[in-house]
Structure formats: C-alpha cells, structure tokens
Amino acid sequence: MPRAVMRGIPGLSDGWTVDRDPAFMMMDIMTRIWSPAQLNPMKLNPLRDLLDELVDFEGLRARPDVKLFVTASNVRTCKSRLFRTPELTSQTLMASACLPMMFEAVEIEGEFYWDGGYLGNPAIYPLIHECASSDVVIVQINPLSRPDVPVSSREILNRINEMTFNASLVREMAGIATITSLVESGELKNDRYTAVRFHQISAEAELAKYGALSKMNTERSFLQHLHRLGYETADLWLAQNFQRIGWESTLDVLNTFL
C-alpha cells in the first residue's frame, strides 16, 4: 500500500506518520467491520509465500546446534504453544505473527493459533533452561512507555494491544528477576535455579513517535527505515555495553518491569 505524501498537514511530526492517510484509515475501518475470512476469501498470503522462498526451513530443522523458540496462542484453549527448531515451518512462523484482525487463525495439527504475544512472547524460560548462556538480550519492539495518554479510539486500541503484548513479558521477567536476586543473595541454593544477566536493546522513544496505523505500513522505504533504525540502535548498544556481557546485567529488570 503506497504512503500518501503527508507534507503540510498540521500536527504531523515526521514523514512516516500515516494515521491521517485516507487509504490507511479506510483499511483500518474495514478490518473492524469485516473479518479476515470476509476480506480475503481466496486466502492469499504473500507473506507465507515469501517465507517459503527465502527461508531454508528443512536446513534449519536439520541443525541441532541452532536453538530457536517461537510461541503462538491457541485460540480455543487459551494456552501458549512453544515451537522449537525441529518444528519450524512457514506455518509456525505465520501462527506466531497472526494478528486476528488481519489474518485468519493458522491451523497446525488440528489446532488454531493467533500471535504468541497474547499469551507469552517472547518465551524467556527456554532461553534459560534449555540453553547454556547465562545472558539474555531482549530486543524491545512494542514500547513499554508512551509520553501521552491515548485519546482517539484507534490510539486506545493500539495502546491496549501494546499493553497486552507486553503483559506476559512483564510477568515472566518479574518472576525471573525475583529468582535471580534470591540466587545472587544466597537465599536460594538449588541447582535447578541460576542467576541470569539481562540486557535490552530498544529504540522506544523513536518507535513511540509512530501512530497506530504505522503497523500496517508495508512501504519498502518505511521498512528500510526501520531496518536502519534497528542496526543503528544495536550498534550503539554494542559500543556502550559489549564489554559487560558475560559479567553483569545492563538492564535493571525490577525497575523496568515492576
């Protein structure tokens, strides 16, 4: 979907704001009136086709040294499903990113799934219990904090989604932080538990500038902008914190998530 030229419209702080673009506004209204099945009766899914084309899933599944964990939310049972490397396909990735107002629930082995963020995404516990590293780096995409209180219905729904997607991470991080503090203080002495060092890469202030409809913007230049932002943020974080990895946490978990 092309982005309309937004120059000259009052109140727009950057060129990527599309919340007042008529095309994006119409798409937003349509997804609230009609379901994905009604909007896409032919079940066309270019994203799945792109994944099949670009990702060697068979080669990935054959790599026991690669540990990749993807979560999805079971629509019927309200349970989180964790897919490990041997289970990864384009279907499991589509399930983990299935926004219910945009895509039909993805069927896998007779069960139907929506985005993993509704119940637990990303899954932190397998990184701790099934991997050897004691350092966990979180790449924060959905802003935890926003400077303003949402006013419009679109902004309210967007913030509800952000809070929902962050809720499972907040709960899990709070529990892990509590256990880590007990281990480090010596109050908890059990081989089942280990202290974990946490780090966070985030461009929260920059991402918070974009309106709710920016998540529907698939324009190539916007995706390239996000790509550059990701690399620049990661490079800056590495320059400031790389020497601390393996020695201490660079993220104050309790202050950030509690």
Supply the key terms.
disordered N terminus, four-stranded antiparallel beta sheet, two-stranded parallel ribbon, 10 helices, alpha+beta, 41% helix, 258 residues, 6 strands
How does this structure look, described?
- The chain has helices at residues 22-33, 36-39, 46-54, 57-61, 90-96, 125-129, 153-185, 204-207, 220-241, 253-257; strands at residues 70-74, 80-83, 106-108, 111-115, 135-140, 197-202.
- It has 258 residues and is of the alpha+beta class.
- A 4-stranded antiparallel beta sheet has the order 2-1-4-3, covered by helices on one side. It has a two-stranded parallel ribbon with strand order 5-6.
- Strand 1 (70-74) and strand 2 form a beta hairpin.
- Residues 1-13 have low confidence and may be disordered.
Describe what is shown at a glance.
With 258 residues, the chain is of the alpha+beta class. Helices cover 41% and strands 11% of the residues. The longest helix has 33 residues, at 153-185.
Topology, element by element:
Elements: H1 22-33, H2 36-39, H3 46-54, H4 57-61, E1 70-74, E2 80-83, H5 90-96, E3 106-108, E4 111-115, H6 125-129, E5 135-140, H7 153-185, E6 197-202, H8 204-207, H9 220-241, H10 253-257
Parallel strand pairs: 5-6
Antiparallel strand pairs: 1-2, 1-4, 3-4
What is the structural class? alpha+beta
Helix content, binned percent: 40-55%
Shape: globular
Low-pLDDT residue spans: 1-13
Largest sheet descriptor: 4 strands, antiparallel
Instruction: Give the neighbour order of strands across the main sheet.
Output: 2-1-4-3
Distance between the termini: 39 Å
What oligomeric arrangement do these chains adopt? single chain
- Which range does the strand content fall in? 5-15%
Global Rg? 20 Å
In total, how many beta strands?
Answer: 6
Mean of residue pLDDT values: 84
Count of individual helical segments: 10
